[in-house]
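Quick start: what a row looks like.
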Amino acid sequence: MRMLELNSWRQTGVLHLWRYTENVRNYPGWHLATDLAGHASFLDLLTLLKSAAESRASRTVKPTIPSAEVLATANNRRSPVVSPTRVRIAASGVADHWTIAEVNADVTIELGVQHLDGIIRWLSDPAAAFDTTYGSAPPLWFWGLVGAKTPGNRKRADR
């Protein structure tokens, strides 16, 4: 049943994913921001992938290039960014698997059930996840809900 739900899943809202090409010492890895609908859609996708992890299921999302507003939230405005044209998110059969790989203009994120569960918990409270990372080599940063006035977003916007 979950595979049917996963196959029926459609991306809604906005999801920004990017990496910086400069100042990577302070901002390593990949960076994520969403709008409210994109956040809910992304969490739904991760939940469906977690339930279908044994089948090594995957789905592709289309990120939106981060705007000046999004980059201002991360407070690294001067560094150029690279944003993929597609992001394939795949469930791995290995529970603790974590990779984010870039090939040309596409990114593949492969996550075991342990990390799918961890990211779902991490992002369940966007204000608490704001300006924090999950995973390593490379880490994934979360920069909040674009347009939302969460405590973390206000804090950064006021700087």
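That is the whole record. The beta strands are 15-20, 30-34, 58-61, 81-82, 86-91, 98-103, 106-111, 132-134, 140-145. The chain has one domain: 2-151.
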